[in-house]
Amino acid sequence: MAVMSGAADSMLPKLVDDPEAVALAVEPWAQPGRKNKKTCRRALLVGSLMTLLLLACFVLGRESASSAAWLQIDLLAKLTAMNNGTAEPSIDRVTSIASGLTTTTHAPHGRDELLGGLLPAGMNRRTCRSRYESWRYYKYFPYAASPHLQDKLRAYEARHRRCAPGTPLYAKSVEQLRSGRSADGMECTYVVWLPFDGLGNRMLSMVSGFLYALLTDRVFLAALPADSADLFCEPFPDTTWRLPLEDFPVADLLPRGQSIERSYTSLLDAKEVGPDANATAGVPPYVYVSLGWQLKDPLFFCGEHQLVLGKVNWLLLYSDLYFSPSLYAVAEFQDELRRLFPAKESVGHLLSRYLFHPTNPVWSLTTRYYRSYLATAKRRIGVQVRMFSYGSISADDMYSQILACSQQEHILPETEDGDEDEVVAATRNGDNADGSNSTAILVASLYADYYERLRSRYYDHGAKGGERVAVFQPSHEERQATDNMAHNQRALAEIYLLSFSEELLTSGRSTFGYVSSNLAGVRPTIMLTAYDHKIPEPPCRRAVSMEPCNLTPPLGVECRGKPVDKEDLARHLRVCEDSKDSVKLFD
Q: Which domain holds residue 503?
């Protein structure tokens, strides 16, 4: 039994200058005739290279995974170079096997570079490689974008191009903002996302804010801070989603807390907005919407208050929540959400894959690590561990909870006691030359403890059936540093590495885990929080919806507008598996 471990201190250094040189480009079949001899020579060379690869895998079988991964990357580069940067189908089949990118796909929906029409065509490939390459790494494509969602996104993209920063309509809207009041009939109205909390929280609130923009025909802009400036590509074609901060006419744009002077509830209490507002004063030019974990503006989720907010040209969104589930409880949005997302658990999944595309530096970091350590495994399991102060337990207890959960849900490979000769015999008897009996476990945690323990577990005890098990951890930062760009790039790379897994074991109430499983299209197993500082019983639950949880829903808020379809709401909005006071979307 060979146990392989990954670099625990930092992400893998650069392997190749141009990751496109090893991309698996699928080209049409070669035409018969004058190319036949050339094709035969290529096929012979490919066969020779593959023979060398298999021989190397046999020789290195009990060595580190990184040795084989480096050889595979070199092989891919040679295969691609043979075709001047392209790959004919025979070569594509070889490289697919070598890289492990297309060996596991569990559903046909959207398995192409446009994700079944979800993404727009024609955007620059070199400036954002991840947009059209990510589909090769995802293992699940559970839902296709509905025709109505595709139409809605294309219409939104056109609106964004008309209204984005740098356009005459944007300049007109900013001048209206400077005037001190909102105006009727403005062609462009906006929701501006403001950063709040860590990367996982930010990504979930961005998805929710973008969904709200779709539902209300607003333009979604992001006030990206310096620590997030080089994380994501521009999501919309031929335009930008970045708010120009240097000349935006709202002083102290970023709030210092969730109690905001110009928030909707504050303005409502002061009778500056709403039915009791002074009509002669006009509608304010902008309103903050405070939807953080304290939920200072719960009336935002009432239809009658959406009518009021609809008159405000600029909404400034300050949130660290995935509040999409609570939008389904707004009667005015319910029918449109049904049409956009026939499968309710697809909301965050589809919008996350549409909106987020890592920049080239982050994508290179991600794919180099994947190809070097994870690609050749038959199965990849992501283990994401996050502990909160209100549910803290010892490292020993946390590790015990991981093992108990794994045993309950049959996630990690089982081990068996035996002497070394028995383990080696089991490994040799298994047909594992092509990695068909291998599992890679990727650990994502701020600490190295759980990686070290899992690595020792499979080093000291062989996996049943001679299964080859590798344990990796790209980094262990010890503390969260959201205001650090390099930290955020590594965190985003690990989110995507987790999303390339076949199975996920995540921590309850962790937005990092929510985002990973959401992108993966996987219903994770969620470890429950130790509220009484003891290992919970049961230790975990298998999620029945991949949707993230809204950890602070507007419970107890009485709305007086159009009644919502309560039967439909009860069917699709339920309590989260990992938080009894929170809700998520179900089917």
A: 360-417+435-546
Residues 314-340, mean pLDDT to the nearest whole number: 97
The per-residue pLDDT of the chain, averaged, comes to 84
Do both 304 and 228 map to the same domain? yes
User: Are the C-beta atoms of residues 416 and 405 closer than 8 Å to each other?
Assistant: no
Q: Are 368 and 15 in contact (CB under 8 A)?
A: yes
* C-alpha–C-alpha distance, residues 245 and 583, integer Å: 34
Amino acid letter for position 465: G
pTM equals 0.82
Give a yes or no: residue 493 inside a domain: yes
Residue-level pLDDT at 167: 98
Whether the predicted pLDDT of 54 surpasses 60: no
Q: How far apart are CA 451 and CA 453, in angstroms?
A: 5
Kindly report each contact of residues 66-75 with a partner whose C-beta sits within 8 Å and lies 24 or more positions away, as own/partner. Answer: 66/4, 66/6, 66/372, 66/373, 68/376, 69/371, 69/372, 69/373, 69/375, 69/376, 70/15, 70/372, 72/98, 72/99, 72/371, 72/375, 72/376, 73/15, 73/16, 73/22, 73/371, 73/372, 75/49, 75/50
Which amino acid is present at 173? S
More confident: 44 or 188: 188
How far apart are alpha carbons 474 and 306 in whole angstroms? 44
Tell me, yes or no, whether 232 and 307 share the same domain. yes
Tokens 């919502």 belong to which residue?
Answer: 564
Residue listed under structure tokens 């709040």: 196
Which of the four pLDDT bands, split at 50, 70 and 90, describes residue 382? very high
Please give the pLDDT value at position 569: 94
Q: What is the DSSP string of 483-532?
A: T-HHHHHHHHHHHHHHHT-SEEEEETT-HHHHHHHHHHT---EEEPP-TT
Tell whether 524 and 467 lie within a shared domain. yes
